[in-house]
Amino acid sequence: MELRVRVDSDLCTGHGRCYALAPDVFESDEYGYCRIPEEVVTGALVDQARIGAKNCPEDAITVEEL
Ligand code: F3S
Fold first, then answer.
1. pLDDT digits over 41-55, tens only?
2. 3-state DSSP call for residue 44?
3. Parallel, antiparallel, or unpaired: how do β-strands 40-42 and 2-7 relate?
4. Could you tell me the distance, in angstroms and rounded to a whole number, from the CA of residue 1 to the centre of ligand 1?
5. Which atom belonging to ligand 1 lies closest to the Cα atom of 33?
6. Which pTM value belongs to this model?
7. Counting atoms of ligand 1 from 1, which one is nearest the CA of 60?
8. Best of 12, 21, 50 to mutate for ligand 1, by most ligand atoms within 8 A of CB?
9. Non-local CB neighbours of 15 within 8 Å, separated by 6+ positions
10. Which terminus of the chain has a smaller tally of CB atoms within 10 A, N or C?
C-alpha cells in the first residue's frame, strides 16, 4: 500500500503535532510549518502519515491511497 501525503500550506498554522507525532513523514520548516520531504510513503510510514493527518487541528493534511 502506498499513500500520497499532502499539506495545504494555506491551512497549516504551525501547530507542529504532525512532525511531533510522525517525524519520519513530516518535518518543520524554519518557521515551524509542516514540510513533507517525500509525498509518497509506504510500509510503516503509512500509519505515521495517517496519525499526522488525524491529529492536525487545522485539517491541513490529506492522505490519498494510491
Ligand atoms: Fe501544520 Fe497541522 Fe502540522 S497546522 S505544523 S500541518 S499539525
1. 999 999 999 999 999
2. helix
3. antiparallel
4. 24
5. 5
6. 0.95
7. 6
8. 12
9. 56, 57, 58
10. N
Tracing cell 507525532 back to the chain, one arrives at 21
- Burial pattern 36-55, b for ≥16 Cβ within 10 A else e, equals beeeebeeebbebbbebbee
In whole angstroms, give the CA distance from residue 25 to residue 5: 9
pLDDT for the residue numbered 59: 98
Greatest alpha-carbon span in the chain? 32
Instruction: Tell me the residue length of the chain.
Output: 66
Ligand 1 atom closest to the CA of 52, numbered from 1: 7
